[in-house]
Amino acid sequence: MEKKAFFQQLDERTDIRYTDSGLKIFRLKFPRANLRLCNVKIDFGSRDVRLQAESGDTQLPYGTAHFLEHLLFWHNGRNLYSDFFAHGALLNAFTTYTDTNFMFTSLPNRCRQTIPILLDALSNHSFDKQMITQEKAVITNEIQTAHLNHQLSYHYQLISMLSPASPAAVFPAGRIKDIEAMDIRDLQKAYKAAYKPQRMTLFLIGGSEDSETLLPPHLRLEKRPDHKADRKMIPACPPTLSQKEVLGDEERPEDTWTGLQIGALPGQNDLLTLKLYWDIASRILFQFGSPFFQEIQQTYRLEINRLSAEAHMYEDGGFLILHSQGAHSSAYIDVASYYVRQQKKQIAAWLQYGKNSLTDAIIYDSDYVRKCFEWAAECERFDCSFLDLYRTIHDMNVQDFMSLIDVLGSSKKAVIHVSQKEAIGQ
């Protein structure tokens, strides 16, 4: 099947409806799947630390969204995981920078029993001081354990070096001082503001049934409103006096962790477009198997044993986190940028590799409902179709790629060099 036709087929399998209360239903049919993946996404994540109201703003502790996620696993004195397990369903939950998610997989004939249980638990929570105290201890231990993960620690340390005031610099569970300061009144305020049907989306992925077959009969579905959401944009990076902050010994690194502050490009501030562009560029520049990396490694005899990149881009800013391992780890970004400029005739071929890699990944991911959900969630977040994703990827050109290369050289950087001794100790 032609790749474009595959994306069109995903759109044909997608149906978006709304309940009369405002709950959004995102149905993606997936005929080959035996199980049904259900996910309720709440538009409230770790970045949401300020509640706005006519009576005044409320500043919340970092980690509030994640704390609520923990509390909502308890409903009427019972643990939701146990209740779902009794129905043959596995329930999990996770909090991201932008949202909170409650996800379970289930046999299709169990959805009509499990979905109402989850929606009731999310919409009718009763706060209990004893349970809050219990979860404070659990989450404190979770934060302490996370600090033992050096990769996670470097990630947030880099963002803190680049933008200390950004909520992205804080682990989603918060800091221990935030957990200690967590107050039942703030939790109640946050819950009341966030856990509304209008801020929730229920994803139903798998099978070929209509939404009505999987949902409880009391949920009356209406067609999608005929309007387009506002386009999400990313701001330009703020001006800075210092372009680079370095920790560790630059002369003898074994691992190099590099953070770059990224934002809008000249003439391009569309968030989805830039997310996809950086994904493509990362596949070209920072994947071991890419033709670009093979060429540059052979040309310069680079000792690079590991290479990876992650772009984190949101309406309040963006960061690119790079990890390179090996004797030449600290030089890779500069060498790669130089090589691109010296070999401009090859950019079109490299770019085609990056585009193919991303589109193939989406096609491959569609065979797995969990991965397919992630792309469906992107479409829902940006109010776009799967075909829109394909077109944006397809339309990236050489000039767009060179703009990203310019960012690698000009953006504010934070670097952590890890010595061989420290790397072995980890």
Can you walk through the features of this model?
The chain has 17 helices and 16 strands. The protein has two domains: 11-223, Cytochrome Bc1 Complex, Chain A, domain 1 (2-Layer Sandwich); 244-425, Metalloenzyme, LuxS/M16 peptidase-like (Cytochrome Bc1 Complex, Chain A, domain 1, 2-Layer Sandwich). With 426 residues, it is an alpha+beta fold. A hairpin with a 6-residue loop joins strand 4 (50-51) and strand 5 (58-59). Helices cover 44% and strands 20% of the residues. The protein is globular. The relative contact order is 0.16. Helix 1 runs antiparallel to helix 15 (386-395), helix 2 (64-71) crosses helix 8 and helix 12 (332-342) runs antiparallel to helix 16 (398-410). It holds the Pfam family Peptidase_M16. It comes from Bacillus inaquosorum KCTC 13429. Belongs to the peptidase M16 family.
In brief:
The protein is of the alpha+beta class and 426 residues long.
Q: Alpha-carbon distance between the termini?
A: 46 Å
**Major sheet strand order:** 8-9-3-10-2-1-11
CATH class of the largest domain: Alpha Beta
Give a short account of the largest sheet.
7 strands, mixed
Low-confidence stretches: none
CATH architecture of the largest domain: 2-Layer Sandwich
Look at the helices and sheets and give the structural class: alpha+beta
CATH topology of the largest domain: Cytochrome Bc1 Complex, Chain A, domain 1
Q: Which superfamily, in CATH terms, is the homologous superfamily of the largest domain?
A: Metalloenzyme, LuxS/M16 peptidase-like
Number of domains: 2
- Taken from the alpha-carbon principal axes, the silhouette is globular
